[in-house]
Batch of 2 targets.
Target 1
Amino acid sequence: MKRILTGDRPTGNLHIGHYFGSLKKRVELQKDPNNEIFIEIADVQALTDNFNNPEKVRKNVREVVIDYLSVGIDPNKVTIFIQSMIPEIAELTVFYSNLVTIARLERNPTVKTEIAQKRDLFGESVTYGFLGYPISQAADITAFNGEIIPVGEDQLPLIEQCREIVRKFNNIYGEVLTEPVAVLSSATRVKGLDGNSKMGKSLGNAIYLCDSEDTITKKVMSAITDPNRIKKDDYGNPDICMVYHYHQLFTDKKDVENICKECKAGKRGCVACKKELAKNIINEFKTVREKRDYYENHLDEVDKILLEGTKRAQGEAKKNIKRIKESMKLDYFSGSDKNDIPRL
Ligand code: TRP
């Protein structure tokens, strides 16, 4: 069996960047019966930069689960759980903080970039919690003995830091933790409607999996095309056109070749090209929207899936922390009746 662990911060609905970047890969991974997959809804991590907005985090826990279920993540094959309901993660975070220096956290490229982006929230001095979130992410992974961690490129420095923590821990306390490996979930990077190299919820340039047909059409009509193309018969440059970028994701290969040729020859109008794209996106996500519709009307089922997944995850974390605490000599009274360990 291979233990796979990954997660998302519940700070907004998932968009087509997530779909091509990670969700498709997860659906594929769940087909292999040798994969044991855990997906964490990282609400505690979301609070590190949304501590002043708990309602947003709470609401998005359920939204993200509905997004997962809508794209076909199967709760019978995958354990979906809520981070804050696993107290062992918080415990491990405290233990691992002894093994990480502040300088090392400040050097983490992902943390560095994010701090620069969050000046509005943090001003000149970042919180202890945010600076330390790589430690809590190492706890997320090791609480479940995660071996394979499918992530996007931006997450690689966090997995590297987790590996360092694991090595240091094992050096001091014995070979207890598994050193995880990151695998890139996908090479596909989806650009924003505005031409930004990244599609992001905070950038306002995303097409969401939950967008209605109308919204998808409106968004596609507003997408950035080759700015030098003013008249319909101007020669176009598909390489700088977002509509062409999305055609490559949603349109049959043969048609894409044709679109490219016609655009370059000035034989294809942008409006028609956008309409065709909108139709294809709407088609691709038809069943996703239908499933979302179903779950929105069966929220009790969503909650049940989340609760059952979280219970399964709780059992797993409990098993693992026992060994970890033993190795740290924190196994007081473990010789006494196992069902009656004092907890003061
Ligand atoms: N930091 C990840 C993100 O922002 C989410 C996450 C939390 C995660 N815990 C994790 C990813 C553990 C992989 C493993 O996307």
Target 2
Amino acid sequence: MKIILLGPPGAGKGTQAKRLEEARGLIQLSTGDMLRAAVKAGTPVGLKAKAVMAEGKLVSDEIVIDIIRDRIQQPDCIKGFILDGFPRTVPQAEALDKMLGEFGWKLDSVIEMVVDEAVMVERVAGRFTCAKCGQGYHDSFKKPAKDGVCDVCGGTEFIRREDDRAETMQKRLAEFHAQTAPILPYYKSKGILRHVDGMAAIDDVTRQIEAILAE
Ligand code: AMP
């Protein structure tokens, strides 16, 4: 099964992708995570992407298309995957169709997570993750049971994304409207675009997604 989760930053794509990974054995392919890893490792791609990401702008189509082309050919992707944060422009969507076609694959569903953007800024500004295992938390909505200690692995170091600050988040939302929203009609015309209410509780959103995938 090959799925795209679409929505503005903070819509919950990563959270839901992780749940699908656990429940269905699909692989989460987050171009944001891959780019952050490249920045951390100081690779040539990371060096190019670093400043662009810090500003809340989009990395070039060429870079992310190459990353995805390499990644989906890895053996673990045979099981199927959830694209989280890709495609983000019409040329990326077209390139994806082309490469899936080359492998004889097709997309099963494109699921748009519909959210209230004013709430997204608050959601994103409060989020942080465990530096050791990547478990996600939030200052208001999901604190660790014991302050400063990860519920999952006991880690005591946490990371906040630099681009989650309110002013950068506004730029990321602007990029979403200018560049990513135009891919919605592209998938609508193919008859595979579906919607879920991304403002519902996390478990409820998972149920909505599962209902779509069960059809
Ligand atoms: P994300 O973790 O999906 O919010 O992505 C973080 C940042 O990585 C974005 O603000 C972009 O700068 C960059 N990025 C991630 N995915 C893409 C993509 N498909 N196209 C262009 N830039 C991307």
